[in-house]
């Protein structure tokens, strides 16, 4: 049975989704419901492969933790913040083990490595990281972060409440940090996102503008999935609109600058 994190959010909406499709609600709302369901399936598959890869390469306490699955807070962060913003789980390591300043070991919720930088990402629930701490634990909590910074880690902390209530703000903060540190998202996406890579490969193979429907048929996806990723690649500069339409893009073509950069 695949390891899925989407039921945390998706189950309460299933009734609305079924109603929207069966009652024939037209336009954007119906399209949105179908797109959410399709994207949840894609994420579940990528998440399952990602977790399996880490299980194959880890051992000891870290492996035991991963076998138990990620915690609720960490799963929610991936689904509502990291995945929508970055569209890739490459270079992201869950339950990453580091040497403790007391000569022991501790585990970071996530570690992200790229271009020689190491980023620690922590997800903090109010009760476990504030309300239920005694004075000694509170001091230890701060000292731990200070030692991470001294050891060269860049640290990002997100509250569980903010992830649930303000996911878009968390996404923006994450992207601002990656941009500030010179880690623009397209650098990791182009190298590892299987959906985007498949579209770019198809574009190079055809050598002609393609519509979302054509991409969906060629790759066996839902049209909503193809449209969402074509629009994302357009915003990142990999694709350009083709044709004369300005308000609604019907055809996409490969950006020549991207093609020259990757032709070798």
In short:
It is built from 14 helices and 6 strands. It is α+β, with helices and mostly antiparallel strands and 264 residues long.
Shape: elongated
Number of domains: 3
Mean pLDDT: 75
Rg, nearest Å:
21 Å
What is the H-and-E element order? HHHHHEEEHHEHHHHHHEEH
Fraction of residues in H or I helices? 55-70%
Q: Alpha-carbon distance between the termini?
A: 41 Å
Q: Give the strand order, joined by hyphens, for the main sheet.
A: 1-2-3-4
Count of helices?
Answer: 14
Beta-strand content estimate:
15-25%
Structural class: alpha+beta
Q: Characterize the biggest β-sheet.
A: 4 strands, mixed
The unreliable regions are: 1-34, 185-191
Number of strands: 6
GO biological process, one term: regulation of DNA-templated transcription
Keywords: DNA-binding
Pfam families: HTH_IclR
Organism: Cohnella pontilimi
Question: What are the key terms here?
Answer:
264 residues, DNA-binding, 6 strands, 14 helices, 15% strand, 4-stranded mixed β-sheet, single chain, alpha+beta, Arc Repressor Mutant, subunit A, disordered N terminus
Q: How would you characterize this protein structure?
A:
The radius of gyration is 21 Å and the shape is elongated. The longest helix is centred in the N-terminal third of the chain and has 30 residues. 59% of the residues lie in helices and 15% in strands. It has 264 residues and is an alpha+beta fold.
């Amino acid at each position: 049975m695949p390891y899925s994190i989407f039921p945390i959010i998706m189950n309460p909406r299933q009734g609305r989704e079924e109603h929207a499709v069966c009652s024939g609600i037209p336009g954007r709302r119906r399209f949105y419901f179908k797109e959410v369901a399709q994207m949840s399936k894609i994420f579940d598959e990528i998440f399952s492969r990602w977790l399996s890869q880490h299980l194959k390469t880890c051992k000891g306490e870290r492996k035991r933790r991963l076998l138990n699955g990620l915690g609720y807070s960490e799963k929610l962060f991936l689904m509502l913040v990291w995945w929508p913003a970055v569209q890739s789980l490459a270079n992201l390591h869950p339950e990453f083990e580091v040497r403790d300043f007391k000569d022991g070991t501790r585990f970071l919720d996530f570690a992200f490595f790229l271009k020689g930088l190491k980023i620690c990402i922590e997800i903090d629930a109010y009760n476990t990281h504030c309300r239920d701490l005694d004075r000694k634990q509170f001091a230890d909590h701060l000292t731990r972060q200070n030692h991470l910074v001294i050891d060269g880690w860049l640290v990002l902390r997100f509250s569980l409440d903010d992830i649930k209530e303000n996911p878009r703000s968390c996404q923006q903060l994450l992207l601002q940090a990656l941009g500030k540190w010179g880690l623009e998202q397209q650098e990791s996406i182009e190298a590892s996102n299987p959906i985007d890579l498949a579209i770019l490969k198809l574009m190079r193979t055809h050598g002609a503008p393609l519509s979302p429907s054509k991409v969906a048929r060629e790759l066996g996806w839902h049209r909503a999935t193809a449209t969402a990723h074509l629009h994302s690649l357009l915003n990142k500069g990999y694709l350009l609109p083709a044709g004369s339409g300005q308000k609604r893009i019907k055809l996409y073509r490969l950006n020549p600058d991207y093609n020259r950069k990757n032709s070798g």
